[in-house]
Write a structure and sequence with these properties.
The chain is mainly alpha-helical. A hairpin with a 6-residue loop joins β2 and β3. α5 crosses α6 and α5 packs across α8. It is globular.
């Protein structure tokens, strides 16, 4: 009986989602994960949905894992490395916020740790416009756990890095 309720719910959801484009579906799936405290997996939800449906329009050509994203962005500085890992955690995986520990852990797993992640994130917060903002601090010490979020400008900067060909000069694209 429980399986029937589950199948009915999936059929209802499927019918409702069939009328939406992949980016809308991705936002809904991430909302469901947040709302029901469930881990939504799949690094590119909207693109995966488009591929399953056979859509080519609306599917984004984003890498499916952090190493692929990282190498396509070709970051040069610690700030750029942190930006790409944060983009992957927040935008691709649908996380609302993230910690410096989570960003550096992802980078360490790929063999690109940042010696001082706080300095890297601070440099991104000091840019005009800011690419990262601190959303929460638990504790009173300087070393307290902090939560961060990419700003709209940060997301756009990461998009720009990913769109460049490997080895392309970022300053050349900024001038065009």
């Amino acid at each position: 009986m429980a399986e029937d309720k589950e199948l009915d719910a999936m059929a209802t959801i499927s019918k409702a989602l069939d009328e939406l484009d992949p980016s809308q579906i991705g936002r809904i799936i991430r909302w469901i994960g947040d709302r029901y405290k469930s881990q939504v997996t799949g690094s590119n939800i909207a693109g995966n949905i488009g591929a399953v449906r056979g859509d080519t329009q609306g599917s984004r050509e984003e890498p499916v894992d952090l190493p692929t994203l990282y190498h396509s962005a070709n970051p040069k500085t610690d700030g750029e490395r942190a930006l790409i890992a944060a983009y992957w955690l927040q935008v691709i995986n649908g996380g609302a916020e993230w910690t410096s520990f989570a960003v550096n852990t992802e980078l360490k797993q790929m063999g690109f740790p940042i010696n001082n992640i706080t300095d890297a994130l601070t440099s991104l917060m000091k840019k005009k416009p800011a690419l990262v903002m601190q959303t929460h601090k638990s504790g009173k010490s300087k070393q307290a756990r902090k939560r961060y979020k990419l700003t709209h400008a940060g997301i756009q900067a990461a998009h720009q890095m990913v769109k460049m060909a490997p080895g392309e000069d970022p300053s050349a694209q900024a001038q065009s």
